[in-house]
TrEMBL record:
Keyword match Cytoplasm: no
Presence of the UniProt keyword Plastid in the record: no
Designated name of the protein: Helix-turn-helix domain-containing protein
Residues spanning the signal sequence: none
Organism of origin: Flavobacterium xinjiangense
Segments passing through the bilayer: 6-27, 39-57, 77-95, 107-126, 146-170, 191-212, 224-243
Keywords: DNA-binding, Membrane, Transcription, Transcription regulation, Transmembrane, Transmembrane helix
Start and end residues of each HTH araC/xylS-type domain: 296-400
SUPFAM superfamilies assigned to the protein according to its UniProt record, in alphabetical order: Homeodomain-like
Entry GO MF terms: DNA-binding transcription factor activity; sequence-specific DNA binding
Length: 401
């Protein structure tokens, strides 16, 4: 097989090979753990490798020799209209264990399949009807058509924005339903979305650079773009492979109507009773008899029975114990306590820590031990919650005693 080894082709070959290796490793991990998000990450890395391939093979002499030229012309390598949806699906699968690939999700892939049909039709006409290059008579690969590159970029930007919106909704929901939100907000989500944003900005940056340095628009000049793209891809592959986190809180949502987020459980029969409307619930004090009734019950359960000591306490746990639904408990905490569930439980934990400090327990025990006994599950979460509640760090607070 033809491959002219040179500096440009060899460097991209290394990046391409490493990407394929990591795609395979992530796929193997997905098969072993049956993790949906890893399947999607593996596919994303594989699509990134294909994106690099035409330039790598071009520098290796394929565009200058047959039958390699025809292989590059009639085989789509840059699947720009698939990349955005895959990133969006990956985000959902990481954050929502109830995510499933359905007909609705399949519609997001339709533009990508239409492009594949377009390339197939060109191949059939050129090879079997016209018998020569008709659509390729200008010698330009269709993957590099201006309209396709820009449409692909717009598509990826749209799905990047949707992924950010989905993550923001997830963060708001977790603050409403769990008492350990900090531990499941996933720094990895921010990391790979920032890395993907860099991928989106690269073509824009090089287009602007090309205005001032026209040589960057040449075939060799474009090599720098694919080099930096490869570096970002490699970073996502390595960090994604080592990411062990997946959320365990399932939910349903819609971008296009104002239905509330729905918490799902195995025995759910009435979705309205398990809904959390994060868009419209506000922290306005309410003195309604119903709110006061449930507020009193919640205070008794959390404070007197010390439920705040459960580091994995959820809104659903309270609802089950009190014999009601999560919608009622969420509304009561938002309007009765004027805060979200996560902050509410942490306020009881901070109060317990302050009582322990006032009793001098920090002289016989570590501060972290006191925090863990009060229901916190990490030092970072404790420090953030304490500073938010008191305006001081734990050490600063101890100095005031």
């Amino acid at each position: 097989m033809l491959f002219q080894f040179g500096f440009y082709s060899s460097v991209l070959l290394i990046s391409f090979t490493q990407g394929i290796v990591y795609s395979a490793l992530i796929l193997a991990k997905a098969i072993k753990t049956q993790n949906k998000s890893n399947y999607l990450l593996s596919l994303f890395i594989f699509l990134c490798c294909l994106y690099i391939a035409p330039w790598m093979l071009g520098f290796a002499g394929w565009y200058d020799n047959q039958p390699y030229r025809d292989f590059l012309f009639y085989t789509p390598f840059q699947h720009l209209l698939f990349v955005g949806p895959i990133i969006f699906f990956y985000t959902q699968s990481l954050l929502n264990p109830s995510f499933k690939f359905s007909k609705k999700e399949a519609l997001h892939l339709l533009p990508g399949f239409i492009y594949l049909l377009y390339i197939t039709a060109i191949w059939v006409y050129d090879k079997f009807i016209f018998g020569d290059y008709y659509f390729y008579k200008n010698g330009m690969d269709k993957d590099f058509d201006y309209w396709y590159q820009k449409l692909g970029l717009v598509s990826m930007i749209v799905y990047f924005i949707l992924s950010i919106q989905y993550y923001n909704i997830y963060k708001k929901l977790m603050l409403q339903v769990v008492s350990y939100a900090d531990t499941i907000l996933f720094k990895w989500i921010k990391t790979y979305l920032i890395a993907f944003l860099v991928m989106l900005l690269l073509p824009i940056f090089f287009d602007i650079t090309g205005v001032f340095y026209p040589e960057m628009k040449s075939y060799q000049g474009s090599w720098w773009f694919f080099l930096f793209f490869s570096i970002v891809m490699y970073y996502i592959a390595i960090t994604g492979y080592s990411n062990p986190l997946n959320t365990t809180i399932p939910f349903k949502m819609s971008f296009f109507d104002k239905n509330p987020i729905l918490l799902l459980n195995e025995n759910q029969t009435n979705e309205t009773e398990n809904s959390i409307d994060i868009q419209y619930e506000t922290f306005e004090e309410s003195n309604s008899p119903e709110i006061e009734h449930w507020k009193s019950k919640i205070e008794t359960l959390i404070q007197d029975e010390k439920w705040y000591q459960n580091s994995e306490l959820t809104l659903l746990d309270l609802a089950k114990k009190l014999g009601t639904n999560v919608s009622v408990i969420s509304k009561t905490i938002n309007q009765g306590f004027e805060m979200n569930f996560n902050d509410c439980i942490n306020s009881y934990r901070i109060k317990a820590v302050k009582n322990s400090l006032a009793d001098g327990e920090h002289k016989n025990s570590t501060l972290l031990g006191i925090a863990f006994d009060s229901g916190f599950n990490s030092k970072a979460t404790f420090n953030r919650a304490f500073k938010k509640n008191t305006g001081k760090t734990p050490k600063e607070y101890i100095e005031t005693l």
